[in-house]
Amino acid sequence: MDEKIDHSRRRLLTAATVGTGAIGVAFAAAPFLASWNPSARAKALGAPVEVNASKIEPGQMIVVAWRGQPIYIARRTKDVLAHLDDHNELLADPNSDNSLQPAYIKATGAARARNPEYWVGLGVCTHLGCAPSSAFVRRGEFQIAGVDLGHKWPGGYYCPCHGSKYDASGRVFKNVPAPRNLTIPPYAFGENLHITIGVDDVEKNA
Description:
This protein is an alpha+beta fold. It folds into two domains: 1-37; 49-197, Rieske [2Fe-2S] iron-sulphur domain (Rieske Iron-sulfur Protein). It is 21% helix and 20% strand. It has a three-stranded antiparallel beta sheet, with no helix packed on it. Strand 2 and strand 3 form a beta hairpin. It is globular.
Protein backbone atom coordinates (compact mmCIF):
# COMPACT_ATOMS: atom_id res chain seq x y z
CA MET A 1 0.00 0.00 0.00
CA ASP A 2 1.45 3.33 -1.05
CA GLU A 3 2.23 5.71 1.74
CA LYS A 4 0.25 8.90 1.44
CA ILE A 5 2.24 12.11 1.30
CA ASP A 6 0.90 14.98 3.32
CA HIS A 7 1.72 17.83 0.95
CA SER A 8 0.31 20.46 3.27
CA ARG A 9 2.64 19.30 6.07
CA ARG A 10 5.59 19.31 3.68
CA ARG A 11 4.79 22.86 2.65
CA LEU A 12 4.62 23.88 6.31
CA LEU A 13 8.00 22.29 7.11
CA THR A 14 9.57 23.84 4.02
CA ALA A 15 8.25 27.26 4.93
CA ALA A 16 9.49 26.88 8.49
CA THR A 17 12.94 25.83 7.29
CA VAL A 18 13.21 28.73 4.86
CA GLY A 19 11.92 31.14 7.49
CA THR A 20 14.42 29.94 10.07
CA GLY A 21 17.21 30.25 7.52
CA ALA A 22 16.16 33.78 6.67
CA ILE A 23 16.12 34.74 10.34
CA GLY A 24 19.56 33.18 10.77
CA VAL A 25 20.90 35.17 7.82
CA ALA A 26 19.38 38.33 9.24
CA PHE A 27 21.05 37.83 12.63
CA ALA A 28 24.34 36.92 11.00
CA ALA A 29 24.21 39.99 8.78
CA ALA A 30 23.38 42.39 11.60
CA PRO A 31 26.94 42.64 13.01
CA PHE A 32 28.31 42.89 9.47
CA LEU A 33 25.97 45.74 8.55
CA ALA A 34 26.58 47.45 11.87
CA SER A 35 30.29 47.47 11.13
CA TRP A 36 29.59 49.77 8.19
CA ASN A 37 27.97 52.39 10.43
CA PRO A 38 30.41 54.81 12.13
CA SER A 39 30.30 54.80 15.90
CA ALA A 40 29.15 57.83 17.87
CA ARG A 41 32.77 58.40 18.88
CA ALA A 42 33.92 58.31 15.26
CA LYS A 43 31.22 60.79 14.29
CA ALA A 44 32.18 63.08 17.15
CA LEU A 45 35.85 63.05 16.20
CA GLY A 46 35.14 64.40 12.73
CA ALA A 47 32.01 66.44 13.34
CA PRO A 48 32.04 70.25 13.23
CA VAL A 49 31.86 72.03 16.58
CA GLU A 50 29.77 75.17 17.10
CA VAL A 51 30.85 77.72 19.71
CA ASN A 52 29.14 80.87 20.95
CA ALA A 53 31.94 83.43 21.04
CA SER A 54 29.76 86.39 22.00
CA LYS A 55 30.46 86.01 25.72
CA ILE A 56 34.25 86.07 25.42
CA GLU A 57 35.60 89.30 26.91
CA PRO A 58 38.46 91.25 25.25
CA GLY A 59 41.76 89.74 26.32
CA GLN A 60 40.18 86.39 27.18
CA MET A 61 40.47 82.98 25.54
CA ILE A 62 38.44 79.79 25.66
CA VAL A 63 39.49 76.28 24.65
CA VAL A 64 37.20 73.80 22.89
CA ALA A 65 37.88 70.30 21.57
CA TRP A 66 37.67 69.41 17.89
CA ARG A 67 38.84 66.04 16.56
CA GLY A 68 40.39 65.39 19.93
CA GLN A 69 42.60 68.49 19.81
CA PRO A 70 42.41 71.84 21.64
CA ILE A 71 41.18 74.82 19.65
CA TYR A 72 41.96 78.27 21.04
CA ILE A 73 39.42 81.04 20.50
CA ALA A 74 40.84 84.35 21.70
CA ARG A 75 39.21 87.76 21.62
CA ARG A 76 41.99 90.22 20.99
CA THR A 77 42.05 93.71 22.42
CA LYS A 78 42.14 96.81 20.24
CA ASP A 79 45.64 97.52 21.51
CA VAL A 80 46.94 94.12 20.37
CA LEU A 81 45.22 94.42 16.99
CA ALA A 82 46.68 97.87 16.39
CA HIS A 83 50.23 96.56 16.75
CA LEU A 84 50.15 93.26 14.84
CA ASP A 85 52.52 94.66 12.20
CA ASP A 86 54.95 96.27 14.65
CA HIS A 87 57.12 93.22 15.31
CA ASN A 88 57.48 91.48 11.94
CA GLU A 89 61.27 91.63 12.22
CA LEU A 90 61.04 89.34 15.27
CA LEU A 91 59.01 86.66 13.48
CA ALA A 92 60.24 83.66 11.50
CA ASP A 93 57.30 83.67 9.08
CA PRO A 94 55.42 86.98 9.40
CA ASN A 95 53.46 86.45 6.17
CA SER A 96 52.48 82.87 7.05
CA ASP A 97 53.96 81.53 3.82
CA ASN A 98 54.78 78.15 5.36
CA SER A 99 51.78 77.78 7.64
CA LEU A 100 49.07 75.14 7.75
CA GLN A 101 45.90 77.17 7.26
CA PRO A 102 43.01 77.66 4.82
CA ALA A 103 43.65 79.97 1.87
CA TYR A 104 41.11 82.49 3.16
CA ILE A 105 43.18 82.88 6.33
CA LYS A 106 46.35 83.56 4.36
CA ALA A 107 44.45 86.36 2.60
CA THR A 108 43.79 88.17 5.90
CA GLY A 109 47.45 89.07 6.42
CA ALA A 110 48.78 89.70 9.91
CA ALA A 111 45.38 89.12 11.53
CA ARG A 112 45.18 85.47 10.39
CA ALA A 113 41.47 85.55 11.20
CA ARG A 114 38.12 85.77 9.44
CA ASN A 115 37.05 88.29 12.06
CA PRO A 116 40.14 90.23 13.23
CA GLU A 117 38.88 90.51 16.79
CA TYR A 118 38.53 86.73 17.23
CA TRP A 119 41.53 84.52 16.58
CA VAL A 120 40.92 80.79 16.13
CA GLY A 121 43.82 78.36 16.08
CA LEU A 122 45.04 74.91 17.04
CA GLY A 123 46.47 75.05 20.56
CA VAL A 124 49.34 72.69 19.80
CA CYS A 125 52.94 73.87 19.61
CA THR A 126 54.44 73.05 16.22
CA HIS A 127 57.63 71.84 17.90
CA LEU A 128 56.64 68.74 19.88
CA GLY A 129 52.93 69.20 20.48
CA CYS A 130 52.76 70.87 23.89
CA ALA A 131 49.95 73.32 24.69
CA PRO A 132 51.14 76.95 24.60
CA SER A 133 49.96 79.27 27.37
CA SER A 134 48.22 82.55 26.64
CA ALA A 135 50.17 85.70 27.44
CA PHE A 136 48.19 88.57 25.98
CA VAL A 137 49.61 91.52 27.94
CA ARG A 138 51.74 93.74 25.71
CA ARG A 139 55.04 95.33 26.73
CA GLY A 140 54.57 94.73 30.43
CA GLU A 141 56.86 93.05 32.90
CA PHE A 142 55.15 89.82 32.05
CA GLN A 143 56.45 86.51 33.29
CA ILE A 144 55.12 83.06 32.53
CA ALA A 145 56.56 79.77 33.77
CA GLY A 146 59.37 81.80 35.33
CA VAL A 147 60.38 83.33 31.99
CA ASP A 148 60.44 87.09 31.43
CA LEU A 149 59.06 87.71 27.94
CA GLY A 150 60.63 91.15 27.84
CA HIS A 151 59.51 94.71 27.24
CA LYS A 152 59.10 94.06 23.49
CA TRP A 153 56.62 91.25 24.02
CA PRO A 154 53.65 92.00 21.69
CA GLY A 155 51.21 89.64 23.39
CA GLY A 156 50.57 86.09 22.27
CA TYR A 157 51.44 82.55 23.33
CA TYR A 158 54.37 80.96 25.12
CA CYS A 159 55.13 77.24 25.15
CA PRO A 160 56.53 76.30 28.58
CA CYS A 161 57.92 72.96 27.36
CA HIS A 162 60.82 74.27 25.27
CA GLY A 163 60.37 78.03 25.09
CA SER A 164 58.72 78.59 21.71
CA LYS A 165 56.91 81.91 21.38
CA TYR A 166 54.06 83.01 19.12
CA ASP A 167 52.40 86.38 18.70
CA ALA A 168 48.65 86.99 19.08
CA SER A 169 48.09 85.68 15.54
CA GLY A 170 49.96 82.47 16.28
CA ARG A 171 53.03 83.51 14.26
CA VAL A 172 56.23 81.96 15.57
CA PHE A 173 59.22 84.00 16.68
CA LYS A 174 62.73 83.56 15.37
CA ASN A 175 65.32 81.49 17.24
CA VAL A 176 62.87 79.15 18.98
CA PRO A 177 62.44 75.37 18.54
CA ALA A 178 59.02 75.56 16.82
CA PRO A 179 59.45 75.37 13.03
CA ARG A 180 56.27 77.13 11.92
CA ASN A 181 53.27 79.20 12.93
CA LEU A 182 50.38 77.69 14.87
CA THR A 183 47.96 75.79 12.65
CA ILE A 184 44.56 77.28 11.87
CA PRO A 185 41.66 74.89 11.23
CA PRO A 186 38.81 75.52 8.82
CA TYR A 187 36.06 77.53 10.49
CA ALA A 188 33.22 79.89 9.68
CA PHE A 189 31.21 82.59 11.40
CA GLY A 190 27.46 82.26 11.60
CA GLU A 191 24.87 84.51 13.18
CA ASN A 192 25.41 86.20 16.55
CA LEU A 193 29.13 85.40 16.69
CA HIS A 194 28.61 81.66 16.55
CA ILE A 195 31.74 79.99 15.20
CA THR A 196 31.60 76.57 13.56
CA ILE A 197 34.95 74.80 13.59
CA GLY A 198 35.54 72.18 10.93
CA VAL A 199 33.73 73.83 8.00
CA ASP A 200 34.60 76.57 5.54
CA ASP A 201 31.11 78.03 5.40
CA VAL A 202 27.80 77.77 7.23
CA GLU A 203 24.26 78.07 5.96
CA LYS A 204 22.58 81.26 7.05
CA ASN A 205 18.88 81.50 7.76
CA ALA A 206 16.91 83.31 5.09
